[in-house]
Batch of 4 targets.
Target 1
Amino acid sequence: MHTNIYFVRHGESPKTEGNERTRGLTENGFVDALHIAELLKNEGIDSIISGPYQRTMFTIEGLARH
């Protein structure tokens, strides 16, 4: 038995001042997130761990739904 660990950095996020926890994704960032979901959806991922920031959760949300 073996374990694969995939590290995914969040999609592109706007470079604005403000609360780091609530900063979301740009339009390109959402495209990045769709691309990640497509790349990894057939990898048999059992668990997904994400940081608490919105941009990280938005990035992995599509994959988590698969």
Target 2
Amino acid sequence: MALDKNEEKLQAALAAAAAVKRKSGLGRGLNALIEGSYEKKGENRERLVPHPMNSVGQIPVEQIEANPYQPRTHFDQDALAELADSIKIQGIIQPVTVRQTGTNTYQLISGERRLQASKLAGLTSIPAYIRKADDQQMLEMALIENIQRENLNAIEIALSYQRLLSECQLRQEDLGERVGKNRSTVTNYLRLLKLPPDIQIGLRDGVIGMGHARALISIEDPQQQVGLYRRIVTEDLSVRRVEELVRQGAGRPEAPADKTAPKQAAAPAVPAAELRRTERVLTDHFGSRVQLRPTAQGRGEIKIAFDSVEDMQRILHILHPA
């Protein structure tokens, strides 16, 4: 009988412990203790606790929206594929930067290429630095990151500078400090936007270089600028030659022709086939590439390429043997 009384006491104690357990919420799971830390979504439970500000967190790529202020709209697909291959092997070395717009939504500030490449690599989440930024700060950070880290052409850089000045209300002095350039460099880029559209397109596409463009800027007449630009393209003029032509007045309007003066006959054009044949003969003779660049006035240039100082001395010895 004593054993029965002990069993009754034990059962009563267990029943009391169970009642305390139910009342305190123990055994109901973490959700019963941290109200609102999970939310039922279909059959799954999704964390709603946001990442702390100014920290790096692993964020699902589907929760990251594109930057509406992204200055670049075209990304080379081959380069993206190469970056995706690298990410598959090495992962994301540098986190992207985002701002939080909702409990589980983020907006990209910088790192568009890394985000796109991560999606190509099949990543479902990537490391991201979460920071606070308003719309103007987002535009400024996206433009500055683009200028500093992307292989932009001169026109894209100039347009980014212009947007920073006009949309972010920066002065040229402040802009130079933000992008790590002196004021004269910023000014030279901005002046490119005053060139005629044809020349800007040529500079953007690599038809001419920054040196050619700077020489053309010093010409005031747009028609004269376009005329000299076409000569640069057709005659493959060097930057030094263009600067000489500008100093000689190639960009100034031509003086009215004297109708009483006898007309000079134009220099006969050298057939292209003969030029190419002569170039091949000279190339074989010097052992280096030789180019002939005649003009319509009968003048021109002979260009002999060399790979080193020793190669130059070899060519000079052929021209002037001891």
Target 3
Amino acid sequence: MIKVGDTLPAATLMEFVEVEGNGCSIGPNPVDVAKAAAGKTIALFALPGAFTPTCSAKHVPGYVENFDAFKAAGVDEIWCVSVNDAFVMGAWARDQKTGTKVRMLGDGSADFSKATGLTLDLTSRGMGVRSNRYSMLVKDGKVATLNVEGPGKFEVSDAATLLAQAKG
């Protein structure tokens, strides 16, 4: 499992951008994790699935609501990673009104999740292999803090916890 001090794994996530601009085209766009994180402080949180109850009601909204506070704490970008395709992540971004506050990044084949060692096997529930619920503060591609949830929990990966760590 990835730990504090480790570099994020080499992987490509996919992002659906609603509007053209800043060199981004509409449609699924590859995001090279190493290049996208280089020289930045990233508040990254991951969760089992788009449109799932806890993720939609608590996890994403907390980060959207605290966007300004994260910026004030020196965070350049907020990333949400889920084992879903870019189209689903784009639809969820519209539903959650993330706008330019949270980058909704799809890990469609769970390559990033597997490389971090933070997968969750929900095959028995019809969801296959997903990402565990966690958050991390990433500085220039390296993990500065890591908060991994226990099974079925939502206690340490919330926006307030990661924001306190970003301020600290």
Target 4
Amino acid sequence: MAKILLAEDEEVLRMLVVDTLEDEGHEIDEACDGEEAIKLIKQNDYDLILLDYMMPIYTGLEVIQYIRQILEKKDVKIMMLSTKSQQADQQRVLEAGANYFMAKPYSPLELVKQIEAILNGEDA
């Protein structure tokens, strides 16, 4: 069981992902915007952080930069979830400090498969 933060502003998608990951036995915290995500990251240690790119207040990219530069949490794994899936967008996300990128739309089963690979130390 892993402790995972999901930061996603689309409520229906967030609920679907949370339900899917909880069914797999993971403990999930939820954030509906970048500000709430940062607050939770300051208070908790996570095995994996899932971030939507386009969120209110702070974007997923800004949250990654905050995690890596201000909080200096270098070990936490971060996956960006985004419809912004052009090569330049993906490169920007990885350069900011994300470990993984998954393009939307994705199936919940595909997401679970990727998460399990990450948590097991496999290349996702």
